[in-house]
Amino acid sequence: MNKTAKSGKIITSVAIMLSALGLTYTPIPGSEQTLVVVSGTELKEPLQKLQAKFAQANRNIKLELKFQGSQEIVNNYIDNKNDFQPAVLIPANGEILTELGDRFKAINNTEPFYDSPKPVAKTMLVAIAWPERGQVLFANGGFQWERIEQAMTAGSWEKIGGAKNWGSFDFVTTDPTRSNSGQLTLNLWIQAKIGTNITNINSASLNDPSVRSLFSLIKKSVYQPPRSTDTLLQEFIAKGPNDADVATVYESIALYRWQQSKTNQSKSYKIYYLDPSIETTATAVIVRRNINNATANAARKFLDFLIQPEQQAVLVEYGFRPVNNAVDIKTVPNSPWNQNIPGAEITPNINTLPPSPGQITREIQRLWERAN
């Protein structure tokens, strides 16, 4: 074999090897899967942080993230209102997926999901208040729904022992027709109002005159409730005292955005644990409508990725409690529970309840829409 032929053979062999390596690390044209994930806004920032890491490990999966209020996720999917095709839905709790599944089967008479829903991260409903407001409102140091109602009825801080220049009393919660935290807020408030627990609430108790009166008071007092919890908290921080005094939010974003409140307002809000509170678990599911097996497999990779310890630790950094028991919130770098946030507790001494059944949540939404 002459030198020219031998050289050409070597070049060809090298080209084949490089091509093979290229096929290993570069997706084959047409093999890339687009995976659209719709999540509640409370998970927006941690999921965006994890997006690049997932893409590095799964170069044939193009991950697109969309964010909506948890109730919006259900309504938009059922009514087919999205201008994209979701494959994974992650609302703030599993009961919302139960509602979605029941509604979808009633309309389409087919199974809505590929697999059982998978828990991703946990949190609970808490209240936040600017320190001087909280000291006046909750003189005994603990959150009380009755005091919120009294302040709403009074209308001004001066009438409940606050300074005259504090102005009106402003309580903030999310729109319960669009957001899970607003639904949890009303649920717990009803329980406190009628003196019963979550298991004893029914349609009759929800139509008690005292509950209807409470909803009317809240609706008149809460001006244009935000559609999502994270939007609410960012507005709460931006407005500051005198425009937003007390709010109900998830513990996760209250912990994560605490430093932002300290920076923006030169003071930080305090966290108050509700007793009882409702633990809510962000739960993911792979939907079937217009989703083929290849995309469903890509979705399974993403969900498996989310519950691994490294990703769970990232969620802890954003204030969530892990669903993977191998992760300890005290030892995670940058854990907000190690930052001396006022009111924050690793193990609060409270009762935590599961979310209400879907029919109770739907009745609460109807009652809210009828209130005036």
Automatic annotation (TrEMBL):
Domain of life: Bacteria
Pfam families noted in UniProt: SBP_bac_11
SUPFAM superfamilies: Periplasmic binding protein-like II (SSF53850)
Gene Ontology biological process terms from the UniProt entry: molybdate ion transport
An example Gene Ontology molecular-function term: molybdate ion binding
Entry protein name: Substrate-binding domain-containing protein
Organism: Chrysosporum bergii ANA360D
